[in-house]
Amino acid sequence: MPNKKRQPFYFFMLEVQKKHQNRGKNYSLRQMPEIASPLWATMTPEEKKPYELQAKNYNGSATGGGNIKTCHGIDYSVVEREQRTAQTQEKRMKEDVLQIIKQAILTQNLPHMTFFIMHINYFCESRGKDGNAIFDAAELAILDFSLQDGIKRGMHTFINLEALPYGYTYEAMRHSDETHQLPLPPDTIGHTKIRDALVEVLRFTEDNDENVCAPIFTFDNHVPVIRSIFNEVFALAHTGPIKPDQVRIYPLSHLLFHLKNATTDHAGPAAAQQPFASVFLAEGYLERGTFEYSEGVACEHHQENDRVPFCSQTKIKGWAFAIIHSCAPDLGIEFIEGKHEPINTLRAPQVKVPDDVSVYTATDIASDTNPWNSGSNIFSNTASTQNFHNTSTSSISRNPHNLTSSTVSHASHNTSWRPSTAASIKNESIGSADDFPALPLLRDYKRGKGRGNLL
């Protein structure tokens, strides 16, 4: 239930009551109106202003209303204002990213457009007095790339933190063991202060305009981490002419979504892949971590300690390679190892596969149209049957999901076999069903049978 509204005279009565108590005279609150009223009547408007301000703050606003607070003691009006600010920032971010891509298309500079990707590992997440999250940085990495030139420049450093926040040692140990496994303070391996590192980041991303910082992209759930670190450093010291609200930290999925739409429109029907249907699908594509274990993406420390996927340098290079791999082929850009893709990468041609092309569907695996279930033989001679029985039984039982690829591989010895002739194969009888290994049915897949490590 909200507190009762108070008038300025109420706070004046409390002050008069306290003065009388200091003099040794104790009056109850019921007696105070009679004592304070004559004094209040002789006061000027200027003298009454302090009490009016107290009443305004107590009531929450000039028009009244209860001052309901959160569990952290923060007024709900402040929380609502922050939520409106966050919504405004998100809307501006979406418009800004779209405008960047449109401007690059209009100037025909899309292949050469430079983008910045950043990631920061942290020791622990703590809470400030206002309840906001605070992250103590441990490792920082940033690079710039374009579709035409690939990865161009990069910066990587470990952060020197003197001490952890009080009471967060266990949380820091747990987070470090599960992720980057960097030594905790005071035994950190870094020599760079976070303030100096962010100053170098601003220099790294500076544009033609000295007061404008280019947008910095990172993975969607990592945006609050980088924003918090920037805000914390800016609050403690002035790092230059750029203000905190001028540092734009944007989610990477929005960049990939709009960039892929632009390159697909440029390629037309020749596009190797279709654009993402939503930003969430673009985020899922980046989350795959396709290039996490590629050669030369991690720093030396994480390479030696076998924590390659959690290295900040691995993160930014993997995201850059993923975006280039998705968008650059639409523009006819040739890949260069170390620039557009990791070194020693085995290239595979991108083949467009229609949705309706497959050997068997999930339903066909357990149906009568599948020759494996009907007891038919798809091979043309006994030697092929015996060879398949000797060499492929263990592989199929270990990995039933390779049914289609194994079938196609061995069936290539028979030039008359085609996926579309599966029904006619039932009439051919060269061997019995006992000559072939029993494959798990579709209902067994759900229970884990046939995988080799269950049941």
Structure, explained:
The structure is a single chain. The chain folds into three domains: 8-59; 84-352, Ribonuclease H-like superfamily/Ribonuclease H (Nucleotidyltransferase, domain 5, 2-Layer Sandwich), CATH 3.30.420; 364-447, no CATH class. Helices cover 42% and strands 9% of the residues. The protein is built from 17 helices and five strands. It has helices at 8-22, 32-41, 45-59, 76-106, 169-178, 194-204, 223-236, 252-267, 279-287, 300-304, 312-327, 371-374, 382-391, 393-398, 403-411, 422-425, 442-447; strands at residues 115-127, 133-146, 150-158, 216-218, 249-251. It has a five-stranded mixed sheet, sandwiched between helices. Helix 7 links the parallel strand 4 (216-218) and strand 5. Mean pLDDT is 76; it is low at 355-367, 369-433 and 442-455.
